[in-house]
Amino acid sequence: MPNSVSRFIKSFTHALHGFDFLFRSQVNARIELCIAVSVIIAAVVFHISPSEWIQVLLCIAMVLGLEGINTSIELLADKLHPGFDEQIGKVKDIAAGAVLIASILAATIGFIIFVPRIMEIM
Protein backbone atom coordinates (compact mmCIF):
# COMPACT_ATOMS: atom_id res chain seq x y z
CA MET A 1 0.00 0.00 0.00
CA PRO A 2 2.73 2.55 0.80
CA ASN A 3 4.18 1.98 -2.69
CA SER A 4 0.90 2.90 -4.37
CA VAL A 5 0.61 6.07 -2.26
CA SER A 6 4.19 6.96 -3.12
CA ARG A 7 3.55 6.37 -6.83
CA PHE A 8 0.39 8.49 -6.65
CA ILE A 9 2.25 11.35 -4.98
CA LYS A 10 5.05 11.07 -7.54
CA SER A 11 2.54 11.09 -10.43
CA PHE A 12 0.73 14.06 -8.92
CA THR A 13 4.03 15.92 -8.55
CA HIS A 14 4.89 15.27 -12.21
CA ALA A 15 1.45 16.56 -13.22
CA LEU A 16 1.98 19.73 -11.17
CA HIS A 17 5.34 20.25 -12.88
CA GLY A 18 3.60 19.92 -16.25
CA PHE A 19 0.92 22.38 -15.15
CA ASP A 20 3.62 24.82 -14.02
CA PHE A 21 5.58 24.43 -17.27
CA LEU A 22 2.46 24.96 -19.38
CA PHE A 23 1.55 28.25 -17.75
CA ARG A 24 5.11 29.55 -17.43
CA SER A 25 6.05 28.79 -21.03
CA GLN A 26 2.87 29.38 -23.03
CA VAL A 27 1.41 32.85 -23.43
CA ASN A 28 -1.89 31.47 -24.74
CA ALA A 29 -2.25 29.23 -21.70
CA ARG A 30 -1.75 32.23 -19.40
CA ILE A 31 -4.35 34.21 -21.34
CA GLU A 32 -6.79 31.30 -21.15
CA LEU A 33 -6.13 30.93 -17.42
CA CYS A 34 -6.84 34.65 -16.87
CA ILE A 35 -10.07 34.32 -18.84
CA ALA A 36 -11.00 31.25 -16.79
CA VAL A 37 -10.43 33.10 -13.51
CA SER A 38 -12.47 36.04 -14.80
CA VAL A 39 -15.32 33.73 -15.79
CA ILE A 40 -15.26 32.05 -12.37
CA ILE A 41 -15.44 35.46 -10.69
CA ALA A 42 -18.36 36.43 -12.95
CA ALA A 43 -20.08 33.14 -12.14
CA VAL A 44 -19.81 33.87 -8.42
CA VAL A 45 -21.03 37.46 -8.86
CA PHE A 46 -24.00 36.44 -11.02
CA HIS A 47 -24.91 33.41 -8.87
CA ILE A 48 -25.15 31.02 -11.81
CA SER A 49 -27.06 27.77 -11.36
CA PRO A 50 -25.40 24.42 -10.58
CA SER A 51 -25.94 23.21 -14.15
CA GLU A 52 -24.38 26.41 -15.49
CA TRP A 53 -21.41 25.87 -13.14
CA ILE A 54 -20.97 22.42 -14.64
CA GLN A 55 -20.99 23.87 -18.15
CA VAL A 56 -18.54 26.63 -17.24
CA LEU A 57 -16.13 24.28 -15.46
CA LEU A 58 -16.27 21.73 -18.28
CA CYS A 59 -15.50 24.46 -20.80
CA ILE A 60 -12.54 25.68 -18.74
CA ALA A 61 -11.20 22.14 -18.36
CA MET A 62 -11.71 21.44 -22.06
CA VAL A 63 -9.85 24.55 -23.25
CA LEU A 64 -6.97 24.29 -20.76
CA GLY A 65 -6.68 20.52 -21.27
CA LEU A 66 -6.53 20.88 -25.03
CA GLU A 67 -3.97 23.67 -24.66
CA GLY A 68 -1.82 21.23 -22.68
CA ILE A 69 -2.19 18.54 -25.34
CA ASN A 70 -1.42 21.09 -28.07
CA THR A 71 1.73 22.19 -26.25
CA SER A 72 2.78 18.56 -25.76
CA ILE A 73 2.33 17.83 -29.45
CA GLU A 74 4.33 20.91 -30.42
CA LEU A 75 7.19 20.09 -28.04
CA LEU A 76 7.34 16.47 -29.16
CA ALA A 77 7.17 17.39 -32.84
CA ASP A 78 9.93 20.00 -32.45
CA LYS A 79 12.12 17.47 -30.62
CA LEU A 80 11.61 14.72 -33.20
CA HIS A 81 11.97 16.99 -36.22
CA PRO A 82 13.59 20.36 -35.40
CA GLY A 83 13.53 21.57 -39.00
CA PHE A 84 10.49 22.44 -41.06
CA ASP A 85 8.34 19.53 -42.12
CA GLU A 86 5.03 20.01 -43.93
CA GLN A 87 3.32 17.02 -42.28
CA ILE A 88 4.43 18.02 -38.79
CA GLY A 89 3.24 21.54 -39.54
CA LYS A 90 -0.20 20.13 -40.38
CA VAL A 91 -0.27 18.10 -37.15
CA LYS A 92 0.59 21.21 -35.13
CA ASP A 93 -2.04 23.27 -36.99
CA ILE A 94 -4.70 20.64 -36.33
CA ALA A 95 -3.86 20.56 -32.62
CA ALA A 96 -4.04 24.36 -32.46
CA GLY A 97 -7.33 24.20 -34.38
CA ALA A 98 -8.74 21.87 -31.72
CA VAL A 99 -7.96 24.48 -29.06
CA LEU A 100 -9.61 27.13 -31.24
CA ILE A 101 -12.77 25.04 -31.65
CA ALA A 102 -12.97 24.46 -27.90
CA SER A 103 -12.38 28.16 -27.22
CA ILE A 104 -15.14 29.22 -29.62
CA LEU A 105 -17.55 26.75 -28.02
CA ALA A 106 -16.57 27.93 -24.52
CA ALA A 107 -17.06 31.58 -25.51
CA THR A 108 -20.45 30.77 -27.03
CA ILE A 109 -21.58 29.00 -23.87
CA GLY A 110 -20.24 31.91 -21.82
CA PHE A 111 -22.28 34.37 -23.88
CA ILE A 112 -25.42 32.27 -23.50
CA ILE A 113 -24.97 32.15 -19.73
CA PHE A 114 -23.73 35.68 -19.01
CA VAL A 115 -25.18 38.05 -21.62
CA PRO A 116 -28.78 37.82 -20.31
CA ARG A 117 -27.54 38.59 -16.80
CA ILE A 118 -25.49 41.54 -18.03
CA MET A 119 -28.49 42.81 -20.03
CA GLU A 120 -30.62 42.72 -16.87
CA ILE A 121 -28.20 45.07 -15.16
CA MET A 122 -28.29 47.51 -18.06
Structure description:
With about 120 residues, the chain is mainly alpha-helical. The chain has one domain: Helix Hairpins, CATH 1.10.287.3610. It contains four helices and no strands. It has helices at about 1-25, 25-45, 50-80, 85-120. Helix 2 packs antiparallel against helix 3 (about 50-80). The longest helix is centred in the last third of the chain and has 36 residues, at about 85-120. It is flat and about 55 Å long.
SSE blueprint and pairings:
Elements lengths: L1 H24 L1 H19 L4 H31 L5 H36 L1
Helix pairs in contact: 1-2, 2-3, 3-4
Please describe the biggest sheet, giving its number of strands, its sense, and whether it closes into a barrel: none
Q: Rg, please? A: 18 Å
**If classified by CATH, what would the architecture be?**
Orthogonal Bundle
Shape: flat
